[in-house]
Specification:
The structure is a single chain. The chain is mostly beta strands. 11% of the residues lie in helices and 54% in strands. The protein has an 8-stranded antiparallel beta barrel. It has one domain: Porin (Beta Barrel). The protein starts with a helix and ends in a 9-residue tail after the last strand.
Length: 207
């Protein structure tokens, strides 16, 4: 875990240093922090069937260092409920929540690479069917995840920093308790879609 965090810090430092070197030669760098570079966003998860329900929300708050680099802090909340998990009539309810942070790099305007660290707390509650012989149980675990992937930003331009996005990523840590791995701790693809909203963005502003 310490090695992963050191890698994240190193990568972020390299990108920020390069961004600062580039901006030293531009007028935009003058004035330091700019509130128009702030943004919020997130993605929503909804899934329903006669046996399964999933609801999730992942908001974030961030800052555009320059036109190539965004950094943000995030939160994660997901709830799932499944019936007939082991036998007919039983239920399993899982709640996942935790903090995170990510770096997005835009090699071109509408494509980004993303590295995201999350630490999730997970509660799994089992409700057996009546007269099944099974006992109810509640388990609490936690797991760190390092999600790496890429995405597409629709509508993002030099003058418009509000856009929708889709992305796919994989958990490189393979923690057995991670919500992003299968029963054998193999990483599964995580698809997300959401919206990025630029705050205080003035007309004609260039990043």
């Amino acid at each position: 875990m310490k090695k992963v965090m050191l890698v994240l810090v190193f990568i972020s430092g390299v990108f920020i240093a390069n961004a600062q070197d580039e901006d030293l030669n531009s007028e935009e760098k003058k004035g330091g922090f700019k509130k128009e570079n702030l943004f919020v966003g997130g993605d929503l998860t909804l899934g329903f069937s006669n046996l399964y329900t999933a609801v999730g929300l992942s908001p974030y708050f961030g800052y555009s260092v320059n036109k190539y680099l965004d950094v943000a802090v995030s939160a994660n909340f997901n709830y799932t409920s499944q019936r007939d998990y082991f036998i007919y009539g039983d239920k399993v309810r899982q709640t996942v929540y935790g903090p995170g942070a990510f770096v997005r790099v835009y090699p071109v305007r509408f494509i980004f690479a993303q590295a995201q660290f999350e630490h999730n707390f997970i509660q799994v509650k089992y409700l057996p069917a009546e007269n099944s012989g099974y006992l109810p149980s509640t388990d609490h675990v936690d797991a760190s995840s390092f999600l790496v992937g890429a995405g597409w930003a629709g509508g993002r331009s030099e003058f418009n920093k509000s856009f929708y996005y889709i992305s796919v990523s994989w958990d490189l840590l393979h923690n057995k308790n991670s919500p992003y791995v299968d029963g054998l701790a193999r990483s599964i693809p995580i698809f997300r879609a959401g919206y990025n909203i630029a705050l205080f963005q003035g007309g004609g502003r260039k990043r």
